[in-house]
Design brief:
It is a single chain. The chain has 334 residues and is an alpha/beta fold. The chain has helices at residues 3-7, 18-23, 26-35, 41-54, 56-62, 91-109, 117-131, 134-140, 184-194, 196-211, 268-289, 317-323; strands at 63-65, 112-114, 144-152, 158-167, 172-179, 219-226, 232-237, 295-299, 306-310. The protein has 2 domains: 3-34 and 133-283, Lambda Exonuclease, Chain A (Alpha-Beta Complex), CATH 3.90.320; 45-123, no CATH class. 42% of the residues lie in helices and 17% in strands. The radius of gyration is 22 Å and the shape is globular.
Length: 334
């Protein structure tokens, strides 16, 4: 399955939606499913890091670096266009237009625009360091990378997932993260808050259902790569909370001692429970509020723009629409 084929599939949940399902309101879930999530700088870093590590052949052909020598004057770029009294753009705005033309050209050609060449090099450097890490060398031989799967959860919830790295010989599914702070405190908080352990549990379920190897992949690992310090730290997720208190795996020599999460339960077992809860909530919400995927196209009479809107508006849609452009909106857990 190619990337285009995989991302063209819209009528399935992905593991990244687990946190939204469990931490947000129905309308927020539905909007993200229909319109997607705008890419953040952190997501852009992760995309490049994953490509450099898991699909290195893509980097040269897909990622295009912005040539900052084309910028005028000091190279300062305006955050929004500003024009002089005669209607001509000032220098910072001209630089913004140059940058926007580059991004538009990349999008047209199907490439990924890299605006910061310095950070690009840092990510490439830390990806190279990861490739020499002893644990990575152990599990990378014969592994499946960016492994796309389509499956149905036990309760009938249709899923799609693209696992970073699976090695069924060792029974390990790995999630590779590129960030600045890879301290134990920040990693454990990230796993807990963003439910990475539930995502890993969903990949395990998907792998089992698509291969018939139900009990093959049992260990979850978060491989944290620091763009700032160019360090790589491997954090293992125990199968159960009690195992976190002990020397729980034969691979413990590769993991930091601080990765044993004694103060928050981010075990695989808890991740499985959250994954199952999210699937169940999805089924229940569809039964209550109607098919979330069913959309209709509305044409703006003035501009001719075609807008996709849901046939069944899930609770909170109008409220979120009213405040989505502001920074004041907060979605509270149900």
């Amino acid at each position: 399955m190619t990337n285009d084929e995989y991302y063209a599939i819209k009528d399935r949940l992905s593991p990244s939606m687990i946190g939204t399902l469990l931490q947000s309101c129905p309308a927020d879930v539905q909007r993200k499913l229909i319109y997607g999530t705008p890419e953040t700088p952190a997501m852009a870093r992760g995309t490049l890091g994953h490509a450099a590590t898991l699909e290195p052949e893509r980097v040269k052909d897909t990622f295009k670096l912005f040539d900052r020598s084309k910028l005028l004057g000091s190279g300062m770029i305006a955050k929004k266009p500003t024009y002089k009294k005669d209607g001509t753009p000032d220098q910072k705005t001209e630089n913004l237009l140059i940058l926007q033309d580059f991004i538009a050209s990349c999008e047209k050609e199907g490439n990924v625009a890299v605006i910061d060449p310095e950070q690009f090099q840092k990510i490439m450097d830390v990806a190279g360091i990861l490739n020499t890490h002893p644990f990575w060398q152990l599990i990378n031989d014969g592994a499946l990378t960016e492994h796309a799967m389509l499956w149905t959860a036990d309760n009938g919830c249709k899923m799609r997932g693209k696992a970073d790295h699976i090695n069924d010989t060792y029974g390990i599914v790995s999630d590779v993260k590129f960030m600045d702070d890879i301290s134990p405190e920040n990693i454990i908080k990230s796993v807990y808050d963003r439910m990475y352990h539930a995502q890993i549990a969903s990949y395990q379920d998907g792998f089992g259902k698509t291969t018939g190897k139900d009990d093959c992949v049992t260990l979850g690992v978060v491989i944290a790569c620091s763009i700032k310090t160019k360090d790589v730290v491997v954090y293992g997720l125990p199968k159960t909370y009690n195992e976190a208190k002990e020397n729980w795996t034969e691979y413990s020599q590769y993991f930091t001692r601080e990765s044993r999460p004694l103060w928050k339960d981010i075990s695989i077992t808890t991740g499985q429970e959250l994954y199952e809860k999210a699937c169940q909530r999805w089924i229940e919400w569809n039964d209550l509020y109607g098919n979330a995927w069913e959309i209709t196209e509305v044409v703006n009479e003035d501009t001719g723009e075609v807008i996709q809107k849901p046939v069944n508006y899930w609770p909170g849609w109008d409220f979120i629409s009213r405040f989505e452009a502001s920074n004041k909106l907060r979605i509270f857990k149900l």
